[in-house]
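Quick illustration, no need to memorize.
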Amino acid sequence: MAVLGFPLEVFAVVAVIDLLYQFWIHSELVPKLGWFDRVFASPSNHRAHHAVNERYRDKNYGGLFILWDRLFGTFVEENDADPVVYGTRAPLRSFNPLWANLEVYVATWRGTWRTGRWRDRLRLWFGKPGWRPTDLQARDPKPAFDIGRPEYDPPASRGTTAYVTVNFALLLAPAVHFLTGAGTMPAWQAAAYAGGLVVLGALMEGQRWARSAEVARWALLAVVAGSML
């Protein structure tokens, strides 16, 4: 569309509408909506998109309309007899937001390094999601997917849970400042903000280094606050 000459304003407006629309469809509170489900990406349709059940895999990609999925064969209706189980086939076992964004690339790089043929190395990056070459599967087999696997829930004391919850809420307000000034603030100030979520996640995981890192985070935030006065 850009090559055909559609103006930048069109992309910006459509992106904002699409993004805002998708807030309400990420919900379990809204039931099926009859005719609406047949035309639009609705909460029921989008719940199926996020499921790991075999019935729902790779379905319901629509962000605003569900018509394209119906046209191209990627539509599936939410089935009450097969309740949606959310997640991914290779579930993330961490509360670290940086690792959540990097884990898939690290895994792909490891596979690229460990497989033998160059053709397979390229297919790891550009092939079908989940595909693995036979030599890599033999050397480093992945366990079969278990839809009944337990949720990732490392033990944490009530005090730690309460502390992390309060601090997470407090981080929401500075996050607005971070988003508005991230392009101009020094890297060390940005690290003070971003590091907060990493450390809070590590506290919930029971990482031994987390308490020391939390003390260092508060010291760094104090320096940031002092520099802004």
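The chain has a mean pLDDT of 85.
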